[in-house]
Amino acid sequence: MEPDPEDGAEPWARGWRVQVAGPGGPGLYLVPAGQGPGPKILFVSPMGGCAADAAWLQEALGPEIPSLAYDRAGLGLSDPPAPGTFPEALAELAAVIDRVSPKRPPVLVGLGQGGWIALQLAMARPDRVGGLILVDVPPSDLEWNAAAARGLDRATSTVRLTLARIGVSGAVAPLSSDPIGLPLAAAEERRAILATPQHHAGVLREAADWSERADVIRALALPDRELPVGVVATTRAGSPAHAAQILAARRSRRGWIATAEGASLQDLLGPRRGQMTVEAICHIRALVH
Asked: C-alpha angle 156/158/161, rounded to 5°?
C-alpha cells in the first residue's frame, strides 16, 4: 500500500512526504518498495539514521515483498518536530503503521538502536505487530562501551552540525561517505542528508533520549512468546552480550537466530552481509499469518 496523493501524500525524492498524525503534525518522509500479498516489512532505522539506510535491503527483498522505510521527525527528509516539543518515536511508529498498514500488522525490522523502538511497540501494542526482527540491536541491560559510544556519537554529530551550519560542504563530504554500499540514488540521498544542519540537530536530540529508552526497555517484559522473533546478532556466541542480544528470539516459540560475529550494522544493511538480514526477514515473514 503506497501513500495516496488524494489523502494528502506528496511525492518527494525517492518516496513520499506524509502527515501521518493528521493536519498540523510534522510531515514524515516514507519510502515504499515492492508490491504483493502478505504482511508489509517496516524498517525502523538506527539512532540518527534515515530511510536510505534500508534501501539495499528493500531492493534485495525483491518486487513482490512490500516494504517501507521512513525518517523519524527531525531526521533525514522528515520535518522537524513542532518548536518546544520532543518527538516521541514510539507514538510516531504506531502512527506510521496506522497510516500504511491499518488492516494487517506489519513485520517490524529494528536496525541497531531502532530495535528498541520496535521492541517497545511490540510490548505496548502487540496487536499492531505481526512479527519482529532485531538486527544488531544492543542489549539494553549491558553497558558494554555504550556510554563511550554515545559520547562519540554526540561528538561526531556536534562537529557535523557545526560544519553544516557554516556551509563547509567540502569538510562535511568526507564524513558523509556511504559505509553500507547503497544503491546510487539512496547513497546520494544519504550524503545530502548528512550535510544538513537539521539532521544533525535531530541526531543530537535522539542521542539524549537513548539512555532513558534503555531504562524503559529494561523495565518491561519481553514480547509475547507467540510473536515470531528473529535476531541477527553480532557479538561472540556464548558471551553474555550474545545471550542478551538473542534473548527475545530464544523466548519466542517461533524464534530464529543468526550470528554474524564481528560484523557491523553497516555490513548487515548492504552487500557485504546483508543477505543474512534478508534471510531473517523472509523466515519470520513466512511465519506471520
From this structure: 110
pTM above 0.85, yes or no: yes
Quick check: helix, strand or coil at residue 132?
A: strand
Cα separation, 131 vs 160, whole angstroms: 36
Q: Cell triple for residue 17?
A: 512526504
| Residue pair 236/261 in contact by the 8 Å Cβ criterion | yes
pLDDT in tens, 189-218: 999 898 888 898 888 888 877 777 778 888
Nearest residue to 134 via CA among 227, 253, 231: 231
Residues 6+ apart with CB under 8 A from 246: 231, 233, 257, 259
Per-domain boundaries in the chain: 5-287
- Decide if 120 contacts 210 (C-beta within 8 A): no
Give the pLDDT confidence of 126-166 residue by residue, as tens digits. 999 999 999 999 987 654 445 545 555 566 656 655 666 66
Distance, CA of 226 to CA of 122 (rounded, Å): 12
Distance CA 55, CA 33 (A): 9
Contact assessment for residue 13 and residue 1, using Cβ atoms and an 8 Å cutoff: no
- 31: number of CA atoms within 13 Å, CB side? 25
Long-range contact pairs involving 24-28 (C-beta distance under 8 Å, separation at least 24): 26/73, 26/74, 26/78, 26/79, 26/80, 26/81, 26/82, 26/87, 27/78, 27/79, 28/70, 28/71, 28/72, 28/73, 28/78, 28/79, 28/92, 28/96
CATH topology of domain 5-287: Rossmann fold (3.40.50)
Return d(Cα 279, Cα 18) in angstroms, integer: 30
* Among the listed residues 268, 231, 286, 235, the one whose alpha carbon sits nearest the alpha carbon of residue 54: 268
